[in-house]
Design a protein that fits this description.
309 residues; alpha+beta; 4-stranded antiparallel beta sheet; 9 strands; 17% strand; globular
Length: 309
C-alpha cells in the first residue's frame, strides 16, 4: 500500500509538479554543509552576507512539531520583454522563476495545504537553500553550472519547500549528484563569458556571475571587468542554461510577453520612480514581476541601448 507521502507526490504529478520528502532531522546536515562551504572560502564574503546569511535551519515557531520537509519542482517558462528606442526593437529574456515567482509558490503551497489538511496535517514555508535541498532529496541533480535539473523539466523550473507535521515515512536524503551528461561536456563553462563556472572546482564562483551583479540595487554600477556585451537578459542571465544540451527541448519554452513603447522605454531609462509611472506601464512591469527590480532597470536596460554607466 502506498504511503500518504506517495499519494501526495502522485497528486503533485497530476499538476505537472514533482516532489520528494526528507526528514527534519537532516536540518543540521544542511546547515553544516553551507557553513563548511563558507569556512573553506568557497563563498565570497559579500555574496554569503547578501544571499545566504538569512537562511534559517531551525524548526519554525509556527510548526515546532514538524516532521518532514516536502520539496517540490514545477516547470517554469522564460518570459520575453520587448523594449523600443530610436527605432531599435530589443526583445530581452526574463529567465524562468522571475515572473510570477511568489504567485507560483503560493499556488504550490495552497495545493499541498488543501491536500494534507484532509489528514489533519499542516504546513508552513521554509527558509532553506532550495537547490541543495532538492539535490539532497534526490529530486534534482546538479549541472556543471551549479543549477538544478529535474527530469522532464531541464533547468526551466521553480523549486519550493515546506515543513509539515506529516510523518516522514520515507527519508530520501542522499548524496548530491551531478548529471552524467556533464562529465564530458563543458558547453556551459565555455558559454559563460565572466568565468563564473571554473574548471578547477565544482562550486560556482558566484561573485563572478552576471546574475549576482544585475540583481543588485540600481545605484551600484557594474564592476569594470564586466563587459557590456556579456549581458543577455533584463535581469538574471541565460548564457549557461541556453547552451546546455539538457535544455534543448525547452529553449523555446516562453509564456508571457510584454512590449514597451519608445515613450515607456525612455521613462524607464530615466529612472522613473514607481509612483510616477503611468498605470499602463506599471501594469506591464507588475505582470512581468519586474516592479521589484524597478530601481535596477535604468542600469540594466541602459546596457542594451548604449547607456551603460
Amino acid at each position: 500500500m502506498d504511503s500518504y507521502a506517495d499519494e501526495l507526490l502522485k497528486l503533485l504529478s497530476k499538476h505537472d509538479c514533482k516532489g520528494q520528502t526528507i526528514s527534519v532531522e537532516r536540518l543540521p546536515l544542511l546547515k553544516r554543509e553551507i557553513e563548511e562551504f563558507y569556512s573553506q572560502g568557497l563563498f565570497d564574503k559579500e555574496f554569503y552576507r547578501e544571499r545566504l546569511s538569512w537562511l534559517n535551519f531551525e524548526l519554525p515557531e509556527s510548526l515546532p512539531r514538524a516532521k518532514s520537509i516536502i520539496v517540490i519542482a514545477t516547470p517554469r517558462p522564460q518570459t520575453r520583454a520587448i523594449f523600443n528606442l530610436n527605432g531599435q526593437r530589443r526583445p530581452l529574456i526574463i529567465p524562468p522563476t522571475y515572473t510570477g515567482y511568489d504567485r507560483v509558490r503560493e499556488q504550490i503551497e495552497d495545493l499541498l495545504a488543501k491536500t494534507i489538511s484532509r489528514e489533519k496535517y499542516t504546513l508552513t514555508r521554509t527558509t532553506l537553500p532550495l537547490k541543495l535541498l532538492a539535490a539532497r532529496s534526490g529530486l534534482a541533480q546538479y549541472g556543471r553550472n551549479n543549477i538544478c535539473y529535474v527530469q522532464g523539466m531541464g533547468s526551466f523550473l521553480q523549486l519550493a519547500a515546506v515543513y509539515s507535521d506529516m510523518p516522514c515515512e520515507e527519508d530520501n536524503w542522499q548524496e548530491k549528484t551531478v548529471m552524467e551528461s556533464c562529465e564530458e561536456c563543458e558547453r556551459c563553462r565555455r558559454a559563460c563569458p565572466s568565468g563564473a563556472i571554473p574548471s578547477d572546482r565544482f562550486l560556482l564562483r558566484a561573485e563572478r556571475c552576471i546574475v549576482y551583479h544585475n540583481e543588485k540595487k540600481g545605484d551600484i554600477s557594474f564592476p569594470e571587468w564586466v563587459d557590456a556585451s556579456w549581458h543577455n537578459c533584463i535581469v538574471g542571465c541565460m548564457h549557461c542554461q541556453r547552451a546546455c544540451p539538457e535544455n534543448r527541448k525547452f529553449i523555446e519554452f516562453f509564456d508571457e510577453e510584454e512590449e514597451f513603447s519608445e515613450e515607456e522605454t525612455k521613462l524607464l531609462l530615466n529612472d522613473m520612480s514607481g509612483d510616477r509611472l503611468p498605470a499602463r506601464t506599471r501594469g506591464k512591469l507588475e505582470r512581468l514581476s519586474l516592479i521589484d527590480y524597478l530601481d535596477s532597470l535604468q542600469r540594466n536596460l541602459g546596457v542594451f541601448f548604449n547607456k551603460h554607466k
